[in-house]
Design goal:
single chain, alpha/beta, D-Maltodextrin-Binding Protein, domain 2, 2 domains, 14 helices, 48% helix
Length: 295
């Protein structure tokens, strides 16, 4: 090998080794994950554009990963650097604590337990609460004069229910709800994809579904959310969870992410969800316009 070829070979090897090192150490990139429904993708994109717009970091988007436990495992393993989560979900599903209604106590507990157990930190809450919503058709609500879950329990033995897999099995989901309100149905609840629940309800394939209070299509489909009059569900304030190691590597992230605190109302989140779900607008454009309105 002549000197010129050796020099070229040497430079290629240096570049290759440097590239591998950068990949293994994470370099100047952060990885954002989300669960597999529209609101999570919107929140993930908000986090991504906020970071890209306010820092020099690049973002890898790993959206629509699945449920809570998949994202949590990704955080612990280091495959993810941050993802959006809900306080009540973390409190009951991850920490296995019994549900309580006090939002402040829930968040304070999370801020203590997550660093100690998992080396994860919570950012300032985005500003909205997204609770589970027990939804029925508006015609049925009017026919039976129903406003609350307690009132609906009288009629559920005649109805069919449709739930997502996670809600059907999680600590703060259907098992506890059915005990609290003595809910019985005409047949075992159907396990359904979250994106199909409202269509199944309007098509009368089911009569009672578990959605979310910020779902954008609820007001457009003449659907009614039954009030949780016994306060079964804990608060579900949305915020980001970030790995402590990521914050040490990129200390600028903390302030940038906390700037999103209190910027998204429940009404605004419902509007964003509807633009993506109902009007089929591009997620990145919807988020870009939202962040520009806040700057």
């Amino acid at each position: 090998m002549n000197l010129k070829r050796f020099f070229v070979f040497f430079l290629l090897m240096v570049a290759l080794v440097t590239g591998i090192a950068a990949c293994s150490s994470g370099g100047d990139r952060v990885v954002i994950g989300t669960k597999n429904f529209t609101e999570q993708v919107i929140l993930g994109e908000i986090l991504a554009q906020q970071i890209e717009g306010k820092t020099s970091l690049k973002v890898d988007r790993r959206f629509n990963l699945g449920g809570t436990l998949i994202c949590q495992q990704g955080m612990i393993s280091g495959d993810l650097d941050l993802y959006p989560e809900y306080t009540g979900t973390a409190y009951t599903t991850i920490l296995k604590f019994p549900a309580i209604a006090d939002a402040k106590k829930v968040f304070e507990q999370l801020k203590q337990e997550y660093p100690a157990r998992y080396k994860l930190e919570w950012t300032a809450p985005f500003g909205f609460n997204n609770s589970f919503a027990m939804v029925i058709r508006g015609d049925d609500a009017k026919k039976y004069n129903l406003q609350t879950l307690s009132q609906a329990a009288k009629y559920t033995p005649q109805w069919r229910a449709g739930f997502g897999f996670e809600f059907l099995n999680r600590e703060d989901g259907f098992p506890g709800l059915s005990k609290t309100y003595n809910l019985k149905f005409a047949e075992s609840p159907k396990v359904m994809d979250l994106g199909l629940l409202y269509r199944a309800l309007t098509d009368k394939q089911v009569d009672f579904v578990a959605g979310n209070t910020t779902d954008g299509v609820i007001p457009t489909l003449n659907l009614v959310v039954l009030k949780d009059d016994r306060q079964y569900f804990p608060p579900y304030e949305a915020a980001a969870i970030v790995r402590q190691e990521t914050l040490r590597k990129h200390p600028e992230l903390k302030q940038v992410l906390d700037q999103l605190g209190g910027t998204i109302s429940e009404k605004k989140m419902q509007e964003l969800n509807y633009r993506v779900d109902g009007k089929k607008e591009d997620v990145k454009q919807v988020v870009r316009e939202f962040l520009q309105s806040k700057s």
